[in-house]
Design brief:
The protein is an all-alpha fold. It has one domain. Helices cover 46% and strands 0% of the residues. The model has no long low-confidence stretch (mean pLDDT 87). It is an enzyme of class 1 (oxidoreductase). GO terms for molecular function: glycine dehydrogenase (decarboxylating) activity.
């Protein structure tokens, strides 16, 4: 299946191009370590003093090109 550039740039949703485990494989791994979910596993392994109570506010998603342009602008000011 061929996707257009604009379809690949869809920043509103995760594009299924990741080669990682599927939902069944994730659940199998969680069962193996005795965790109910990825959030529960993270809560068990990340020290409490560095866990965030709320998700970080990182702003709207941008394309790789836009992110690089912003980083170059920041770097040019230093």
């Amino acid at each position: 299946m061929t996707q257009t550039l604009s379809q690949l740039e869809n920043s509103g949703a995760f594009i299924e191009r990741h080669i990682g485990p599927d939902a069944a494989q994730q659940q199998e791994m969680l069962n193996a370590v005795g965790a109910q979910s990825l959030n529960a596993l993270t809560g068990q392994i990340v020290p409490k003093d560095i866990q965030l109570a709320t998700p970080p506010q990182v702003g709207a998603p941008v394309t790789e090109y836009a992110a690089l342009a912003e980083l170059k602008a920041i770097a040019s000011r230093k």
